[in-house]
Amino acid sequence: MSEQFLIGTYTKKDSKGAYLVTLDTDKGELKDVKLAIPSQKPAYLQVGPRQRVYAVKQAGDQAGVASYDLSGDHATTLSTFLETGPAPAYVGLDQQRHLLYSANYHTANVEVFKIAADGQLTRTDVVTHQGATGPEPEQEAPHVHYADLTPDQRLIVCDLGMDLIVVYDVSEDGKLTAVSRFQFEPGFGTRHLVFHPNGQYVYVLGELSSKLAVLKYNAADASFEHLQTIKTIPADWTAHNGAAAIRMSKDGKFIYTSNRGENTIAVFAVQPDFTVKHIQSISTAGDFPRDFNLSQDESFLVASNQNTDNLTLYRRDAQNGKLTLLQKDVACPEPVCVQRFN
Predict the structure, then answer these.
(1) CA distances (Å), 21 to each of 31, 92, 291, in order?
(2) 120: which DSSP letter?
(3) What is the C-alpha to C-alpha distance for residues 293 and 5, in angstroms, rounded to an integer?
(4) CA nearest neighbour of 113 among 69, 82, 87
(5) Which among 88, 160, 239, 257 is least buried, having the fewest CB atoms inside 10 angstroms?
(6) DSSP per position, 182-197
(7) How many C-beta neighbours within 10 Å does residue 190 have?
(8) Cα torsion through 85, 260, 200, 341, rounded to 10
(9) What CA–CA distance (Å, rounded) separates 154 from 165?
(10) What pTM was estimated for this model as a whole?
């Protein structure tokens, strides 16, 4: 059996766009890395139904989002929405309302796009974050880093500059209305998050603090209650580290985060009270693991090392959540996003 992952990349060096890589689940190996979407800086992407792909895009001094059809022998561009300025850091897909969200780190904009049946993208709203920011050098301004759905179909946004998450109601025509916010400790550096499958708990990753926070979510008013904050790196780690990606197993029992600096995947076991316990840190066999993802049945994990241009493959034990290194040095240029493709 085999399945594929779509790898988003930067294109500062040798990369030519987004790449497909095949996972042979029988042999436990990655193979056949090939260019799938020629594009400048498809650094984050989402895969939708019918092998439609929605990605960050840059073209010279313009940037924005694009949609592609990847069902044939080569990618077909369906739509692009570009404006002068820096590229977004994240795109989120809302299949129910046929909307695409983008989070722009540099402009602090959250943007919403309507996705037509033919893949055309039309912007429906823009919200710009403004306000007090944290104490770290990277927090000189608001920096929106993530915009995606809550289990109850609201939009939740991470702002790294403001140490903040904001929840918005989303209308059917793609308009945002802010309903709640939660303020983290100064310097937390809110980057990405995942919800527990039960919809009642959210696990928030702080890039600048290398911390993982556990909050209880109240869907009635979109409010949050803080339960725990835990480091993703050892207490005696003194060199630079930036926490990057976070994923959760479908059974809600384990959380995985990547550390850029320590260059590890940290594994946490979810406790009966939904707090977490650190159980493993394993090397990514490369430098600067910006993203990773689990295979369809979650027996494997694929990590991307941006600075060393390689992918790493692990086997995952579903019972104890721990990872075992299977393969390293799988060449892929500037990999920064890992999404399942089929």
Answers:
(1) 6, 22, 15
(2) -
(3) 9
(4) 82
(5) 239
(6) EE--TT--EEEEEE-T
(7) 30
(8) 70
(9) 13
(10) 0.98
Are 81 and 58 in contact, with CB atoms under 8 Å apart?
Answer: no
Per-residue model confidence (pLDDT) at position 342 = 84
CA nearest 88: which of 75, 71, 105, 101? 105
Spatial distance between the Cα atoms of 5 and 135, rounded to a whole number of angstroms: 38
Q: How does pLDDT run across 279-322, given as a tens digit for each residue?
A: 999 999 999 999 999 999 999 999 999 999 999 999 999 999 99
SS (H, E, C) 40-58: ECCCCEEECHHHEEEEEEE
Q: What is the mean pLDDT of residues 175-185?
A: 98
Q: How confident is the model at residue 277 (pLDDT cuts 50, 70, 90)?
A: very high
**CA distances (Å), 311 to each of 158, 286, 333, 337, in order?**
27, 8, 9, 11
Residue 261 in tokens = 């600096």
Quick count: other Cβ atoms within 10 Å of Cβ 272?
5
33 has pLDDT over 90: yes
Query: How long, in residues, is the chain?
Result: 342
Rounded-to-integer distance, Cα 65 and Cα 214, Å: 31
pLDDT for 73: 83
Strand order in the sheet with 62-69: 45-47, 52-59, 62-69, 76-84
Q: Calculate Rg over the CA atoms of the chain.
A: 19
